[in-house]
Design goal:
alpha/beta; Aspartate Aminotransferase, domain 1; Aspartate Aminotransferase, domain 2; 4-stranded antiparallel beta sheet; 12 helices; about 40% helix; globular; binds pyridoxal-5'-phosphate
Length: about 400
């Protein structure tokens, strides 16, 4: 197959919708347009049946029961519901939340908002790989702690947290445990019971489903979790999230969850091999390249590399037909060094030099080889212009 440009290597930002997912969604965008809450006619029943099926498909991916799944507009909303909903519901018990500096903004900002109100938040630092230890969590918990929110896998560097052990700490200390599993779901196995997870966020568009739909898993048994709902208006989704369901989106999320679950083992093996080929290829061709994030406890698809003496933004300009992310910016709207790398203790210079490569279902070995060549060439050219690089080379020779 011929290589087609541009190449997409930014699957942690979003993924292309799988054609199989689109196919099952289509009828719900056209002839089966019913409102899943319409109880009195077949249009509603048809939509409701499709939503039921999707609920089961999503639940299967994480070892949950269908009734535990609350559909939302995506992981940002799920995180807001979990964090603000738990804080408001548990207000009488306490007002302390434990989370980490490496979380996605969709966890950090709701926690900040609560901090501005009357909550106390402990921001764990993790280690140099961005990994939070169960001990660190245990030490932070007080008798006022109502929620622990620690992501399963980091979106910037791919580091995996020891979720099962953190869940055990939460269970032992009698504190709710929420995990943002948006990057982990479908990439690594997740079992909400074995991992003692009470609340879990995921999003369709990170698993080759459509944008604008996701869910929050809310434990209903042993012991049940209660949240204060954030969107009132009709009592949909067990009263936790009102609003007419995005039926085609929900159907797409269900199909995406089923496919990603079935193909997880194969894809994990394939992507790990491609990712390691990419990393090795680049590191064999260039000096002064470092890997950010944990070398072993890491998502199969993610490689975040810092190229010393090169600006990440400049590098991205040079490899224009390859879509990647620069770790120097936490979002495209800001140029400050990304909060994740900063929290990990990466220097500002190395953070500015970092590029996140995130592979996915559509990535081929041809693409990987092309990216290796282009990156080596571009970094070489940029370093030719760098006096600091010259100096470093001279020092290395001495
Ligand atoms: C993408 C992402 C989100 C946001 O998900 P949306 O569905 O786009 O709102 C939250 N957390 C993590 C870790 C993510 O990667």
């Amino acid at each position: 197959m011929a290589l087609s440009l541009p190449i997409y290597m930014d699957h942690n930002a979003t993924t292309p919708i799988d054609p199989r997912v689109l196919e099952v969604m289509m009828p719900y965008l056209t002839e089966h347009f019913g409102n899943a809450a319409s109880r009195n006619h077949s249009f509603g029943w048809k939509a409701d049946a499709a939503v039921d099926k999707a609920r089961q498909q999503v639940a299967n991916l994480i070892g949950a029961l269908p009734k535990d799944i609350v559909f939302t507009s995506g992981a940002t909303e799920s995180n807001n519901l979990a964090i603000k909903g738990a804080a408001q519901m548990c207000r009488r018990k306490g007002n302390h939340i434990v989370t980490s500096l490496m979380e996605h903004k969709a966890v950090i900002d709701p926690c900040r908002r609560l901090e501005e109100a009357d909550c106390q938040v402990t921001w764990l630092k993790g280690d140099g790989y961005g990994r939070v230890s169960p001990k660190e969590v245990d030490r932070a918990v007080t008798d006022k702690t109502i929620l622990i929110s620690i992501m399963a896998a980091n979106n910037e560097v791919g580091t995996l947290n020891p979720i099962a052990q953190i869940g055990k700490v939460a269970r032992r200390r009698g504190v709710l445990f929420h995990t943002d599993a948006t990057q982990a779901a479908g990439r690594i196995p997740i079992d909400i019971d074995a991992m003692c997870i009470d609340l879990l966020s995921l999003s369709a568009h990170k698993i080759c489903g459509p944008k604008g739909v996701g869910c929050l898993y809310v434990r209903r048994r042993g012991p049940p979790v209660h949240l204060t709902c954030q969107i009132d208006g009709g009592g949909h989704e067990r009263g936790m999230r009102s609003g007419t369901l995005n039926v085609p989106g929900v159907v797409g999320l269900g199909a995406a969850a089923e496919i990603v679950g079935c193909e997880m083992t194969d894809q994990a093996g394939r992507l790990t091999a491609l990712r390691d080929r990419l990393t090795r290829g680049i590191m064999d061709g260039l000096d002064f390249v470092t890997l950010n994030g944990h070398p072993a406890h890491r998502l199969p698809n993610t490689a975040n590399l810092s190229f010393a003496y090169v600006e990440g933004e400049a590098l991205m300009m040079k490899i224009k037909d390859i879509a990647v992310s620069s770790g120097s910016a936490c979002t495209s709207t800001s140029l400050e060094p990304g909060h994740v790398l900063r929290a990990m203790g990466v220097s500002d210079a190395m953070a500015q030099s970092s590029i996140r490569f995130s592979l996915g279902r559509t990535t081929t070995s041809q693409e990987v080889d092309y990216v290796i060549d282009q990156v080596i060439k571009a970094v070489g050219e940029l370093r030719e212009l760098s006096p600091l690089y010259e100096l470093a080379m001279e020092q290395a020779r001495e």
